Amino acid sequence: MGETIRVGVLGARGRMGTEICRAVGDAPDLELVAEVNRGDALTALTHAGVQVVVDVTHPGAALDHVRFALDHGIAAVVGTSGFDAARLDTVRGWLAERPGHVLVAPNFGVGAVLAMQFARQAARFFDSVEVIELHHAGKVDAPSGTAVRTAALLGQARREAGLGAPPDATTQELPGARGADVDGIRVHAVRLPGLVAHQEVVLGTDGEILTIRHDSMNRSSFMPGVLLAVRNVREREGLTVGLEPLLGLGD
Amino acid sequence: MGETIRVGVLGARGRMGTEICRAVGDAPDLELVAEVNRGDALTALTHAGVQVVVDVTHPGAALDHVRFALDHGIAAVVGTSGFDAARLDTVRGWLAERPGHVLVAPNFGVGAVLAMQFARQAARFFDSVEVIELHHAGKVDAPSGTAVRTAALLGQARREAGLGAPPDATTQELPGARGADVDGIRVHAVRLPGLVAHQEVVLGTDGEILTIRHDSMNRSSFMPGVLLAVRNVREREGLTVGLEPLLGLGD
Amino acid sequence: MGETIRVGVLGARGRMGTEICRAVGDAPDLELVAEVNRGDALTALTHAGVQVVVDVTHPGAALDHVRFALDHGIAAVVGTSGFDAARLDTVRGWLAERPGHVLVAPNFGVGAVLAMQFARQAARFFDSVEVIELHHAGKVDAPSGTAVRTAALLGQARREAGLGAPPDATTQELPGARGADVDGIRVHAVRLPGLVAHQEVVLGTDGEILTIRHDSMNRSSFMPGVLLAVRNVREREGLTVGLEPLLGLGD
Amino acid sequence: MGETIRVGVLGARGRMGTEICRAVGDAPDLELVAEVNRGDALTALTHAGVQVVVDVTHPGAALDHVRFALDHGIAAVVGTSGFDAARLDTVRGWLAERPGHVLVAPNFGVGAVLAMQFARQAARFFDSVEVIELHHAGKVDAPSGTAVRTAALLGQARREAGLGAPPDATTQELPGARGADVDGIRVHAVRLPGLVAHQEVVLGTDGEILTIRHDSMNRSSFMPGVLLAVRNVREREGLTVGLEPLLGLGD
């Protein structure tokens, strides 16, 4: 077995951070050498000899953290949600001038990412597709961010394949019955106590249906994706967006 | 084995009528003695000694057919969709003055009726419930009539149990994402080629989910319900609405 | 609002007991007045004026606890699994000689009990039925106790309706492919990390499928059933077995 | 739009053949120029100027048909089930000595093939996986051929990823409850009237589940795959096995 990777966590005391520290601590090939929280100096990372830092703070702070990591030869895995296109461009600019390894992922759920990519790959072979996402009743946004991203990928795949609008003969509709329209794709959001986070993509052609469903029961489902990123970020030069390139999926 | 029941079918050449004639013909305890179509005289029923007539014509004609049946001591099973409250009241008026047996059912799918009733019975034990119906892309109305009836039953059951509005923390919604509101219940309509007619009622409480799903693949699924009605209509005095009383379900 | 019910819990420090104490404490119409653990004297119940005691200890102890409750005019709710037919007979014997209220339930999951009863009620209307249960990979028995009970109920319902063996044309089978045979009903047990406790009963007739699925995510799903029992046990004279009579279901 | 492809069908009067003739006839870019049945001379193909022939006869005849096609510069699409490894080797031998285009597919259901490939790609990211296939009660083999192939692909993917046997704590089992063991993967076969042909691959890791389900309602679901093969067979030199290479999926 090779050497272990020295890992630091920024935002170590948050809910995701706590889980990540535990998962890194449990992995035989990783070593947790720095837990950094709000108010702590980033130099804790360099003093501890961190090779890969995982950032689960917030978008405003994350950009500075990435800069610090690049300046000190540390690879960065960013799981902060809301790291937008402008911030990605800033990071790209930095990486144009120097070597470095940064991976930014909006979703570390390997299953969720696989589900989304399989749906996208299948889209062009089916006449139509809809998305049903189901979450606990305490969720404030509908549809979920994952469902919106999924629908956008499906819409794009259909356009690239030259498929027109999905067939729909509806002429009498109670408002909302057919769901929200995201990029031409219908998205339905179910909210119920007892649910956690679930999504179904249902694809149909005369005579057959393909359903790709993902159920996420708790935060621990993100850990395999975080560890995958930590283990592989230094293999990829520059900026990597999303877990997809690490999963070895087709185009 | 007892005597067979002599059965006539009105609308015998239509799609449902054809199936019914075949199903009656195949049943050892039933005898198909009259197939009546548009333009044929109703006296074909009396000449053939029909004991139970099944009407699958259209709402306008069906009322006259029921009257004829009552006048001639024939029990009537009406499967014509759109036999509305006013027509039911007319039949009730006739039956107040004379004995007779009439069964009117908006849905002869035994499974569909069971699913609806189970959902209604379960509703008061769960914090919330939503309906997802899924049909082929050629359907013109959304939600389906069955989904609207189901939601109305669920809403009523919740009110009778003193349950308030289902919990829903949604504050940001793309229009339509949360479905249609039918009697306080959210109903989602999915339309895809490859689907036939499907419905899911999903009930949730913290920690558990109960799902009742019905899949109807083709018209043959209605035959058991039609035969059940034919075999039992004469046991029930007056007007019976729906298959439910024949299914021996609880309150 | 009426007076509160004074509740005691036997086995209060166990996993189920802890949940029950919390649930009773949170219910405005119930008052938790005694938490009794191994080694504590049962007189804690009488001193605290307990009206309903919930026993989640073990079958051996539970019988003595029921006796004590009956001797002191306390109603008993027994959730101890493994309270077998012989013990039930003993309790019946005691109750033949004196008034008292005892409810013994093998499963306090309201959703699980509803699912089982709905499946039983539907069984006679379908040509065939199979059970699929899905649990986490740490479960030692396959199929689950609930699946075995469900299959027994389905087998009995089919026999009572005069239905023969379910149709099955299988002539070439890899051993085990068609599941276990429980009372003539095929039962399939799936084991996967990420699952919790789930069961599907799938009923089929030519042209239609009815699926009744229950998902239990955690122990909190049993609390509504426990509270239902506590609130209603004193309304029913003698011994009540199972939650079913409290759920107002049909025959 | 380019020229149309001239298509011939061998076994044109069979159930699959009839559907294929209709689908080819309906496709604007294809032209049905020869329908050949048992007893007809194969020279009907050359006389009609067939460019691509679709063979849905039987394995014994299909080999001769492929030879004839190769001898006359006709591309061949073979959908005959049971075209085994020995026959494939024979075709490979012929193609080593001359140019030609042959595509042999055990399954023309695009959705079924996608489902199988997605499951295979996902397998290495999950701790465990099981297969549930559900078919009508008239099916003679259990599990289905597709389920066996799927399990073999899953088992291979797990071995290549260095994953051991799926976790399973079962110590008490009713015979058959845990399904059949195919290449280390548990496979469950459900048989019910009302079902057609369905398959679910369920993958699990602590905290998340990924389900890939395919429902095939009727034979028309195979037509898109047949047409895909007809349109693309001449683009690929030599022998192609399975639709996969035409679907642009990753490794």
Textual characterization of the structure:
Chain A has seven helices and 13 strands. With 251 residues, chain A is of the alpha/beta class. The longest helix of chain A has 16 residues, at 145-160. The model of chain A has no long low-confidence stretch (mean pLDDT 94). At the A-D interface, α5 and β12 of A face α5 and β12 of D. β7 of chain A pairs parallel with β8 of chain B.
Q: What average pLDDT do the residues of chain A reach?
A: 94
Q: In total, how many beta strands of chain A?
A: 13
Q: Give, in order, the helices and strands of chain A.
A: EHEHEHEHEHEEHEEEEEHE
- The percentage of residues in β strands of chain A lies in 25-35%
Largest sheet of chain A: 6 strands, parallel
Share of helix of chain A, binned: 25-40%
The largest contact between protein chains, plus residue counts on each side, is: A-B, 49 and 49 residues
Calculate Rg of chain A over CA atoms: 20 Å
Structural class of chain A: alpha/beta
- Count up the helices of chain A: 7
**Overall 3D form of chain A:** elongated
The oligomeric state is homotetramer
The stretches of 5 or more residues of chain A where confidence is low (pLDDT under 50) are: none
**Sheet with the most strands: spatial strand order of chain A:** 2-1-3-4-5-13
Give the N-terminus to C-terminus distance of chain A in angstroms. 33 Å
Subunit structure (chains A, B, C, D): Homotetramer.
Main location (chains A, B, C, D): cytoplasm
Pathway (chains A, B, C, D): Amino-acid biosynthesis; L-lysine biosynthesis via DAP pathway; (S)-tetrahydrodipicolinate from L-aspartate: step 4/4
Binding site for NADP(+) (chains A, B, C, D): 38
